[in-house]
Design goal:
The structure is a single chain. The protein is mainly α and 451 residues long. It has 19 helices and no strands. Helix 2 packs antiparallel against helix 11. The longest helix is centred in the middle third of the chain and has 33 residues. 48% of the residues are buried. The N terminus and C terminus are likely disordered. Pfam families: Nucleoside_tran. GO terms for molecular function: nucleoside transmembrane transporter activity. Belongs to the SLC29A/ENT transporter (TC 2.A.57) family.
Length: 451
């Protein structure tokens, strides 16, 4: 008998509402980090000896891997609304405390409070990000592209907000930062209610039910709940996630001699392993993309001068606009790359994407040449080279990560797509954490240009 869900017509995403909301959730998933990133000039001014541009990235992302893994194992006990909307509200409630504490406390105490808040961000962020990518994995491929596009738009939207506050209140860094973080908090609160509406869409409910039904059937089969479980004599699992016979005589007829029951948790881990084995090529590539990015961004690649901004006499204001310009350039070209990678005409063969991904290590070399003033001044010392280097660096970050994030779930069966989605979030976070950790040392090894 066919499953009831197979007889139902597939609901449409009327008006592209689900797609638009997934873009919005992509914006919100990285909003806490982008809010910190685009206001680093404020924190650097208040705590210059603590190097926030190097340390904050690790503080925000250090726990994301652990919370993402915990969410993979235990997240099914809680609804998506609780995990995602609750996470948004938790982050929003803490975000305003950052500028208040930084301004009110002595630098050392402010740094300790900020690190504590950012660590909590990491806990909430891990739950929100992994749950968002899990949803993307269960929906058709373009919705994973929507999340990745939203990640890029997150930076651009916050860049614009930061530029407005910086231009409107150039002489009061604290008030500008406070207003900026209040705006970011309001965006998260709006996203919390938008996600509640998202879960009510028939289109979304259909694909979540489809993925969950397949996952539950596979878990029951692996755990031996049903006597008709597809288990071969030697109980060997193939890479598709199904037990198949491996003896010479077993064509397509499965011989069940004994069904050994295992715990549902162990069955789930078996599914996790199978899902990873099917998609690991692209998952490891995602790790590589963000590792390279966070080794040099923002700590090293933004540590330079833009000579056409020297007309700004106020040194602190010039530094603020320089960092904002570099970060805006990164977010702009990163978003262009994400958008192109998510279009049907923008895809490339697997091998080309992988070559592009691992070729990004060259940006570590070019960025350090700029930072150390090595090479001919007409090249590495010129504004055009710095901006072109940033543009290519950012574009490949967005394009390669999105292509890999779309390709990974397509390699998995329906029962594993949610797990692969969570693996994508873990891969992104792992790359960020490893890159941010190495950035703590690379920032200390280089002297940078005088600001």
């Amino acid at each position: 008998m066919q499953n009831k869900i197979e007889k139902q017509p597939i609901p449409e995403d009327k008006g592209g509402v689900a797609y638009i909301l997934m873009v919005l959730f992509g914006i919100a998933a990285l909003l806490p980090w982008n809010a910190i990133l685009t206001s680093l000039d404020f924190f650097e001014k208040k705590m210059p000896t603590y190097q926030p541009s190097s340390v904050f990235g690790f503080a925000v992302n250090g726990l994301l891997v652990f919370t993402s893994v915990a969410n993979m194992i235990y997240g099914h006990k809680f609804s998506y609304v609780l995990r995602i909307s609750g996470g948004y509200l938790g982050i929003a409630s803490l975000m305003v405390i950052l500028p208040l504490a930084t301004n009110a406390l002595e630098a050392g105490n402010a740094f300790a409070v900020d690190i504590s808040i950012l660590t909590i961000f990491g806990v909430f962020g891990g739950i929100v990000q992994s749950s968002t990518f899990a949803l993307g994995g269960m929906l058709p491929g373009k919705y994973m592209g929507a999340i990745m596009l939203g990640n890029g738009l997150s930076g651009i939207s916050l860049n614009i907000c930061r530029a407005i506050t910086l231009a409107a209140i150039p002489d009061d860094y604290y008030m500008g930062a406070l207003i900026y973080f209040i705006l970011a908090s309001l965006i998260l609160i709006f996203c919390a209610f938008a996600h509640w509406k998202f879960q009510q869409l028939e289109f979304v409910k259909y694909y979540i039910k489809l993925a969950n039904d397949e996952k539950n059937k596979t878990q029951r089969r692996i755990s031996g709940v049903h006597g008709s479980a597809l288990i071969s004599e030697d109980a060997e699992i193939n890479k598709s996630g199904n037990y198949l016979p491996t003896t010479d005589r077993g064509s397509q007829l499965l011989q069940v001699k004994e069904v050994k029951e295992i715990s549902p948790l162990r069955a789930f881990f078996s599914m996790m392993f199978t899902a990873f084995k099917l998609s690991y090529t692209f998952l490891l590539s995602i790790v590589c993309v963000f590792f390279v990015t966070f080794v040099i961004f923002p700590a090293v690649i933004c540590d330079t001068n833009i000579y056409f901004l020297h007309f700004i006499q106020n040194t602190d204001l010039r530094i603020g606009w320089t960092m904002l310009m570099f970060i805006f350039a990164f977010n702009l070209f990163d978003t262009i790359g994400r958008w192109l990678a998510g279009q049907s005409f923008g895809g490339l063969p697997d091998k080309v994407v992988l070559v592009m991904t691992y070729s990004r290590f060259i940006f570590i070399a070019t960025t350090f040449l700029v930072d150390q003033n090595v090479g001919p001044a007409w090249l590495t010392g010129s504004d055009w080279f710095k901006l072109v280097n940033m543009a290519l660096f950012a574009f490949t970050n967005g394009y390669c990560s999105t292509q890999c994030a779309i390709k990974a779930p397509s390699r998995a069966l329906e029962d594993s797509k949610e797990v692969v989605g969570i693996f994508i979030g873990i891969s992104i976070t792992s790359g960020i954490v490893m890159g941010s950790l190495l950035a703590l040392f690379t920032k200390g090894l280089v002297h940078g240009n005088p600001k």
